[in-house]
Amino acid sequence: MQSTTLSKATLSRLPLYLQYVRTVEGSMISATIIARNLGLGEVQVRKDLRMISQAGQPKVGYPVQQLRRDLEMALGIHQKISAVIVGAGKMGTALMDYDGFHEYGLEIAAAFDNHASQVPFRHGNMSIYAMSKLKSFCQQYDVRLGILTVPASAAQDAADQMVASGIAAILNFAPCHIRVPAHVIVRQMNVALAMAHLNLMVHQENKEQEETHYGKQIV
Amino acid sequence: MQSTTLSKATLSRLPLYLQYVRTVEGSMISATIIARNLGLGEVQVRKDLRMISQAGQPKVGYPVQQLRRDLEMALGIHQKISAVIVGAGKMGTALMDYDGFHEYGLEIAAAFDNHASQVPFRHGNMSIYAMSKLKSFCQQYDVRLGILTVPASAAQDAADQMVASGIAAILNFAPCHIRVPAHVIVRQMNVALAMAHLNLMVHQENKEQEETHYGKQIV
DNA sequence: CATGAATCGATCATTCGTTATCGATAGATA
DNA sequence: TATCTATCGATAACGAATGATCGATTCATG
Fold it and tell me: What does the buried/exposed string (b/e) look like for A57-80 if buried means 16 or more CB atoms within 10 Å of the residue's CB?
């Protein structure tokens, strides 16, 4: 593992690389090809990859397997990461069945909901507990990550309970701002705003002229 | 509306501002307060807001209502935006019920699925059509935005059909890379990778020392 | 009315990120 | 073997984004 800290920009592109590299057939892959497929500059790709892998070779590129391992190592998904889901409504239960988690080393440890009875209920092979159990659960299993999928009206209250339970980072699907203390990170997953952003970009793209053959990917 | 193009960085923060401003009580709000609540620098906030609003006044700040209108105008959500959902599984149907869309001027025009029968089926007040109807629908109603919520194995095929239907931007929930032509924008919504990213940040944050009182928000 | 505090907005400096260029290397080919 | 090409990696130039500083403005207060 490399010791130099990765830049924020590089860090945000690593998931993109990993997601792409996992689809690559064959044993070798070059930065040129990756760049073309992701709509990035090839120098940038090379620089990013250089930060997390020493496996590049002139003329041949990177061994796919090794690059993939290096990316996973850099992203810290070589070991299981545990997270909880708070809010077992439509979105919450949909995420419980999301097929991407296990591929990326992520394990949803449990779900919590205000309307769960005190007795654990199950969804598939996942337990849904009452919110009152959140703190003891997170502390017992040392869970630091949470996905927030309650309605906007309940978001702040739920977030407060997550913070009190020791959650250090929240993926917020509720379409509203939540206030948290400085040591907690919130990543917004406001689908409506993401769409508004895309809509803007579509309008802006029309004024520009692109030369790459494949489409631009955004993290 | 301002004519100068907004920088990419500014653009990505506007949703955050709007989401926050909508929660503000009272008639005036200052950049200082906004910055503190979003974990950003106050100069940066002032600079961003300056780009989209001329309503700032020394000592008092911005009128909340006006700032909100300006943000909505800049984000282009003062008018209805239409989008389609492709994939009416758990995630797709959960998004149909997402409570954030109407607040942000977004209208889900219809949903499409491979397993829908030829006769339209309804979920709530939304129609679910067969994929074969996608192209004619998008062209008839001039829909340019799509949300992709099919399993990873079906993602590329579905994306191809969306592109062929005239979709210009895709919000991709499938945990995989999809290849699109250069004029199409893809925004990844890989929840697992977002969590991995958060996990990394939590580990990195521990090494730093933060001084702001409220937590850092990520778009 | 004079003073002070809070805020805006502009300029400048600095840091961060991207792009261009070039030499080095490994394989392919004549 | 000599040459050619694709690729890597490093350096340097460029551009974008952030942060610091300062004057200007407005309200509050004595």
Answer: eeeebbbbeebbebbbebbbbeee
Give pLDDT tens digits for A124-172.
889 999 999 999 999 999 999 999 999 999 999 999 999 999 999 999 9
Residue contact A39–B187, C-beta within 8 A: no
CA distance B36 to chain A (A): 10
Distance CA A11 to C1' C7 in A: 36
Average pLDDT over residues B177-203: 92
DSSP calls for B85-100: EE--SHHHHHHHT-TT
Sign of the alpha-carbon dihedral angle for B74, B78, B82, B85? positive
Best B178, B185, B203 residue to mutate vs chain A (most A CBs within 10 Å): B185
Mutation to test the B interface, candidates A143, A188, A190, A208, most B Cβ within 10 Å: A190
Residue A1 CB-density burial (10 A; 0-12 exposed, 13-18 middle, 19+ buried): exposed
**Chain B within 8 Å of A145 (Cβ-Cβ)?**
yes
Cα A216 to chain centroid, rounded: 19
